[in-house]
Design a protein that fits this description.
Blueprint: E1 5-7, E2 13-16, E3 23-25, E4 28-30, E5 37-40, E6 46-48, E7 51-53, E8 60-63, E9 73-75, E10 78-80, E11 85-89, E12 100-102, E13 105-107, E14 112-116, E15 125-127, E16 130-131
Parallel strand pairs: 1-4, 2-5, 3-6, 4-7, 5-8, 6-9, 7-10, 8-11, 9-12, 10-13, 11-14, 12-15, 13-16
Amino acid sequence: IDGFVIYGSTIGLYVKSQSDQAILQNNVVSNCSGNGIYLQDSENVVVFNNLVYNNARTGILVTGNIDGSAGARILSNTVYQNGNRGIFFSGTTVGSPAGLVLNNVVQGNASAGIQVNASSRDGYLSGGNVSFDNRFASGTPVDVTDITGDPALVNPSGADGLLGGAGFADDSFH
């Protein structure tokens, strides 16, 4: 799934039930009433270079009800001001192990910037992530190259002052 603009839906992009090795790249996902990008029970999915912001729940959710979403690769995304977490490897009984989270910018999410629950920590690796105000959740593995600092985003809500939705085109995250 490459190059789509999605806003105002319940879930922006939903990869579900053995959609293994899917690639989601270069998408803009905003103003959804649920999660922005939702990976469920699908292995080795790549989420690359997406702008995921102003969604009511989690920006990028990696989870599972049956098998988990092992081997998810969350790479070079900007995840901004979502209503829950920015990037979340969830699971209480079914984890999503062996995740790789590299070079993401995460800022302004209500609960946590990046969170990895205990059931998903086996084989988890991260590096080069910038998480600003809400940082890394307690217990989430953090690499020495992950930093807490202001990514200095230019003007996320753009000239129209509206974040995401139909006016997404002027939102400036560089």
